[in-house]
Specification:
The chain has helices at residues 43-48, 51-57, 100-109, 112-116, 120-146, 148-160, 162-172, 178-194; strands at 10-13, 18-23, 29-34, 74-75, 80-81, 84-85, 92-93. The protein is an alpha+beta fold. The two termini are 26 Å apart.
């Protein structure tokens, strides 16, 4: 359970929104609502679709006002033309909750040398490789948010096999070898078919 002293992030799914509950201090958590439609992210409306979370936080005081911003996941076919290159959020967007956009921006900074040399083709190739994993993971999470049956099945698999979930997280963090990615994908596929 996320609360004072918690060391993990929780994701709660409702009919029309997801809530990310993140510990930010010993006494506070941050709750972010994400939905396909902006009106579905209104805190009270989204919380109504998550009765367990609503009950847990019913006696908690609100530390700050509701704030919001629009975020979306998108990839561009090209991130350069002529002598102009797009970097950071301008070059594509991924899951804002995980901080992937910031990580990608810092990672893209390492490709600046190619831009400085005018080798935009090598920057294009590097950019495509950098975006591949976070886009795949973001699409997986989006599919789970859109399909309740798929979400229940996947969460059931992860509950029965926490090691498989840990392997998936290591892929998301970029800490898996290509062989581990393939074996984890095969194992997840098998578990999904067998469930």
């Amino acid at each position: 359970m996320c609360g004072p002293g918690a060391d993990r992030v929780e994701i709660h799914w409702g009919e029309r929104a997801q809530a990310y509950v993140t510990p930010i201090s010993g006494e506070e958590v941050c709750i972010v609502m994400i939905a396909r439609q902006a009106e579905d992210t209104h805190f009270e409306r989204a919380l109504a679709g998550m009765p367990e979370l609503a009950e847990r936080i019913s006696r908690a005081g609100q530390g700050s006002r509701e704030r919001g911003a629009i975020t979306l996941m998108h990839a561009l076919r090209r991130v350069s033309v002529g002598n102009v290159a797009l970097v950071g959020d301008a070059s594509g967007g991924v899951d804002a909750i995980t901080g992937e956009g910031m990580r990608l921006t810092f990672q893209q900074a390492t490709a600046v040398a190619a831009i400085a040399r005018g080798e935009l083709r090598s920057y294009e190739e590097a950019h495509r490789r950098m975006l591949l994993r976070p886009m795949w993971m973001g699409k997986l999470i989006l599919q789970m948010s859109r399909r309740a049956k798929l979400r229940r099945r996947m969460l059931g698999i992860f509950a029965e096999n926490p090691k498989l979930f840990a392997q998936l997280l290591s892929i998301h963090l970029g800490q898996a070898t290509p062989g581990r990615v393939l074996s984890t994908g095969a194992q997840l596929g098998w578990e999904f078919l067998a469930a």
